[in-house]
Amino acid sequence: MDNVILHVDMDAFFASVEQRDNPDLKGKPVIVGGISERGVVSTCSYEARRYGIHSAMPMFMAREKCPNGIFVSGRYGKYAKVSQEIFEIFNEVTPLVEPVSIDEGFLDLSQGKMKDGIEAARYIKNRVFKEVGLTLSIGISYNVCYIL
Ligand SMILES: [Mg+2]
What confidence tens digit (pLDDT) does each residue in 48-76 have? Predict the structure, then answer.
């Protein structure tokens, strides 16, 4: 039997939390990270990515590329709390959750309540959006288990 595996990853996680909590930031280039000149970009919104900004870029470079960007020092305690809420939903879908980072993980559906990858992915996207107010992307694949 093949195990269906989901890879779930929040969209621009830190920047999306900031946009969710402050509607003035919606639709704007939001850059989260160390805001001093020696800091680096942790996450940026999709609007900021259009300026060529990406994670791990030195903050001074991000400021050059997007002088009108909104630079936010991260609220990491808040992101950890939101992460907990998201993983609670993942854990309801299957007990086999392997976190990769604060906003990303693998879900093995073999012991879950939903076996169908697309059904589980839709369910997760809907619940996270309704209950947490954020979007995520999900990749679906499988592991082939051979018994030798
Ligand atoms: Mg992510």
Answer: 999 999 999 999 999 999 999 999 999 99
Active-site annotation, residues: 104
**Residue 107 near residue 99 (C-beta atoms within 8 A):** no
Ligand 1 midpoint to CA 11 (Å): 5
Compute the C-alpha angle 105/121/143, nearest 5°.
Answer: 60
**Ligand 1 midpoint to CA 89 (Å):** 16
The share of the chain scoring above pLDDT 90, in percent, equals: 89
Q: Cα separation of 117 and 147, whole Å?
A: 23
| Mean pLDDT, the chain, whole residue set | 95
Rounded distance from Cα 101 to ligand 1 centre (Å): 9
Paired tokens of 138:
């999900």
Crossing angle of the two packed helices 13-21 and 76-93, in degrees rounded to 10? 110
